[in-house]
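C-alpha cells as discussed.
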C-alpha cells in the first residue's frame, strides 16, 4: 500500500540523473504504407528476405510521463524522468510511493533498468479533481498534467496522496537479457511484478499490426486511461 511505504523529507529541488542508456523518442507512422515500410526496413536490417515473417509487438502508447527505474540486486535504487533523453530528474522518493512500482524484485538481473509510463486513470483523475475542488484548490486540466504534476512534487507525501499508476513496457541497461524476444521480455517484466498492458499483442505481419491498431482504436473510449497511439 502506498500509505505504508517509507516516505522522505521534502526536497528543495530535484537532482539530476544521467541515463546509462538514452531514453529515445519514437518515430511516427501516419498511414498503412508507413507501417509496411517499417517492417520492410527492419527485414532488410536483419538480412531477412522480402516477405519473411517478422513478428512485432503492438501495444497502446500510454499518454503519461516516461520513467526509468534502476534496480541493483533486486532493490530499487533510483527513478528518473525522461528529461532531455540523456539526463532526467531524480524522482526516486516519489516513485517509491506508487503501488504499481515494486521496491524489491526476486530473480531479476543483478542490474536492471525498467522503462515505463506513469499515468492517471480517468476515474482517479475525476476523483482527484473533485477532492481538490472541495478544498478550494486549482483543478488539473487533464490526466497527463495531473500525473506529471503529482510525480514532480517536491514533497513525496503529496505524491503519496495522488492516484498514480504505472505500466512497464521496456528496459534500459541490464546485466543479463530478460528473454530472447520483446514479447517474452514483457512477460518476464510481468512475472517480476510489474503491470504490463494487457492489450499487448504479438503480430506476424504488417496487416496484423494494422488490425491490432484498429482493435485498440475501437476499444479506446472504454480503456479508462488516455493513449496517443499504438507502439
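Sequence:
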Amino acid at each position: 500500500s502506498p500509505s505504508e511505504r517509507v516516505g522522505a523529507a521534502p526536497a528543495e529541488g530535484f537532482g539530476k540523473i544521467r541515463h546509462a542508456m538514452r531514453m529515445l523518442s519514437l518515430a511516427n507512422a501516419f498511414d498503412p504504407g508507413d507501417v509496411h515500410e517499417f517492417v520492410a526496413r527492419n527485414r532488410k536490417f536483419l538480412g531477412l528476405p522480402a516477405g519473411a515473417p517478422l513478428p512485432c509487438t503492438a501495444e497502446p502508447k500510454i499518454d503519461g510521463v516516461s520513467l526509468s527505474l534502476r534496480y541493483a540486486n533486486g532493490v530499487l535504487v533510483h527513478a528518473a524522468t525522461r528529461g532531455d533523453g540523456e539526463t532526467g530528474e531524480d524522482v526516486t522518493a516519489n516513485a517509491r510511493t506508487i503501488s504499481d512500482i515494486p521496491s524489491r524484485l526476486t530473480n531479476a538481473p543483478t542490474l536492471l533498468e525498467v522503462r515505463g509510463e506513469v499515468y492517471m486513470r480517468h476515474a482517479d483523475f475525476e476523483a482527484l479533481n473533485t477532492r481538490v475542488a472541495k478544498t478550494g484548490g486549482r483543478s488539473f486540466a487533464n490526466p497527463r498534467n495531473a500525473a506529471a504534476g503529482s510525480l514532480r512534487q517536491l514533497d513525496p507525501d503529496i505524491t503519496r496522496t495522488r492516484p498514480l499508476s504505472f505500466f512497464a513496457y521496456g528496459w534500459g541497461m541490464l546485466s543479463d537479457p530478460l528473454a530472447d524476444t520483446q514479447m517474452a521480455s514483457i512477460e518476464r517484466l510481468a512475472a517480476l511484478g510489474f503491470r504490463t498492458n494487457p492489450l499487448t499483442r504479438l503480430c506476424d505481419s504488417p496487416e496484423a499490426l494494422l488490425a491490432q491498431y484498429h482493435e485498440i482504436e475501437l476499444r479506446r473510449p472504454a480503456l479508462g486511461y488516455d493513449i496517443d497511439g499504438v507502439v
